[in-house]
Amino acid sequence: MLPIKIYWRNQVPNPAKVLIILEELHLPYESEWVELDALKKPPFTDVNPNGRVPAITDPNTGITLWESAAIVQYLIEEYDTQHSISYAGAPEKFHELQWLFFQASGQGPYFGQAAWFNIFHAQVYGESPESAKIRYGAELKRVAGVLDQVLSTRTWLVGDKCTYADLAFVPWNLQIPFVMSSREGEHAWDAEQFPHFTRWQTAMLDREAVQKVVSLIGEKHVKSA
Fold first, then answer.
1. 3-state secondary structure (DSSP) of residue 130
2. Both 103 and 35 in a single domain?
3. What does the pLDDT look like over 86-107, one tens digit per residue?
4. Domain residues for 34?
């Protein structure tokens, strides 16, 4: 099998999400680094017109894809033939998609906005509105609360095993201490308020594939063993 090319930037959660699935499925891959000022122009916009990483090119099937959730779903359907991190039938198959969509539409955008207003907005504009910090910090905790409540009665989001639906949340979860580091008092992050969420994240961080990706997040170039 030829290596799948992943268009990559380090320290970014969404490319790491795809990398976790590649590692879990033991798929060969190699990265192509995309400079920040190259994201919004050709040749990268020929790959992803939205100008974001990740994207992949799979020479084994000839497909090019962007949007991390779409890439995850493709990798699962194409290569998880033994259903090691997925389920084959209903209702679990659809519940996995439900949680993947929640990650892509709920966790990613809100955690990303919390990061922007808590950390980066002031670096660009010289100040950051407190109202935005409060709103997106509260949304970050709301999303974590949804997960914590569901996980209070089960070990994993779907069925009785860790699936891609769980693993998709790992990279943004890792960002919480950094994203919320400047917040204090009632606006601070307290992991003890989310015990089931914290237990779940810790269990995923114990997985070999996740540990490898965590070790690679800061690297400019990544490649399968």
1. helix
2. no
3. 999 999 999 999 999 999 999 9
4. 4-85+210-216
